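Model it.
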Amino acid sequence: MQRQPSQVSAQSVQYRSPAGVEYRALPDNDDIRKARAALDASPKDIARIIDLGVAQSGARQFREAIATFTRGLEIEPDNALLLRWRGHRYLSVREFDRAFADLTRGAGLDATIYGNWYHLGIVQYLREDFAGAAASFARAQPIAPDAGELAGSTDWLWMSLSRAGRGAEAKAMLDRRPDSKPVTNAYTRRLQLYRGEIGPDAVVTAADTEDVQVATLAYGLGNWYLVRGDTAQARRWFERSVQSGGWPGFGFIVSEVELRRLRQ
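Modeled.
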């Protein structure tokens, strides 16, 4: 069994890949300790439950976060925000059916929560329901909470429409420039590629060293090649995404699925 060399055995296994690689949580940090102390002082406070789950997620303690959000849902079973967070973390540990159930229910309870639509779109995309994913990202896009999330939902909407065979709609959506708020992140660079503002050689640079960043950029580039019919280059970049080690990133998660499809 392979293990990430930077992790120690005391840290919990979050995900074990089909190849047998174990991906582990990071240790507790000050944010987790403070959030846990605050929750201990008010154990039924939903906001404090969410704070602890979010802090655990920041340390890649996704299974622990799921348990925390489940504790909240035992108090408030119809809390759409708790369903958003737990669904997101089921996605992180590759429990896609549970993620789909939580996010679908959360979106049905409160259609104004961006995270339910965005993460539901990713689960639908993973399932090859590209039309359904496009519909979810179209719901998420206008209610994005900030410029970074707006870039993300615009990117995933372009990919979903493209994979659904609706390339003209995808281009028309980008031409409207819904992501015009200023921000720089991995999604903005991918969007530059889709718009022809940069070439594929400029997507992943030597300055990109953070694992999730590399996973995100590499998946976007691989998908761009796949949409263009270049399966060999697509496979190369999906492999690069997985090799990044950025296992919580959606690019990494989807690259794993894409590689399994390409082997069939």
